[in-house]
Amino acid sequence: MSSCYVYFDESGDLGFDFSKSRTTKHFVVAMLFCRDPKRIDKLVNKTFAGFTKTETKSLGGVLHTYKLRPAVRKRLLRQLQNEDVSVLVIMLNKEHVHIGLQDAKHALYNYVVNILLDRLIRKKLFNGEDDIKIVASRRETSKFLNENFVDYLRHQAARNHSVDISVSIKTPKEEKGLQIADLLAWSFFYKYERGDASYVDIISEKVVEENWLFGR
Fold first, then answer.
1. Do 108 and 56 meet the contact criterion of CB atoms below 8 Å apart?
2. pLDDT tens for each residue of 29-49
3. Which tens digit of pLDDT belongs to each residue from 204-216?
4. Do residues 14 and 108 lie in contact, with contact meaning Cβ atoms separated by under 8 Å?
5. CA–CA gap between residue 5 and residue 7 (Å, rounded)
6. 132, 195, 196, 135: which is closest to 162 by C-alpha?
């Protein structure tokens, strides 16, 4: 049995008070699918190898995309373009989200991730013999909410597709693939929030899903 890994992260926020200047118009979830996580780890390590000690210290051992120089972001995306990976993205224009979901942010997040997972499974990037490992970036401190999220995804995959998956919640320092997922989510968010597709264009050949939920 072979293993495949799916890392995902989000960019933007799930606030809906648009009178606040820091509330984003869009929310993006990106998934990185790969079969060899060690190659992804090497990309992160190689990037750090090019930093000065001061730069490494300022990042705290993690590639936080918003802290990286544009040249570093683009170089890392070009390197990822040469890897055997697939990228899936789902976007929300938050103005189109139903008021009932606006008031249930945890349920909305679970729903969005499940839709993207559903699209991943339908793409048939893996077969029935694969061991599917989903790794999510930790976004909640509540043990209950994290357990609810894990149980929800596993149940939905089993019920809708008869697929057994493992789901774990890690920090980007624990799983370097999450640092790449962060870069991908940020890149697509930048495309739609800022109207700048220069980052996304670099990785376009690896994108197998890029669609809106609830309309653009």
1. no
2. 999 999 999 999 999 999 999
3. 999 999 999 998 8
4. yes
5. 7
6. 132
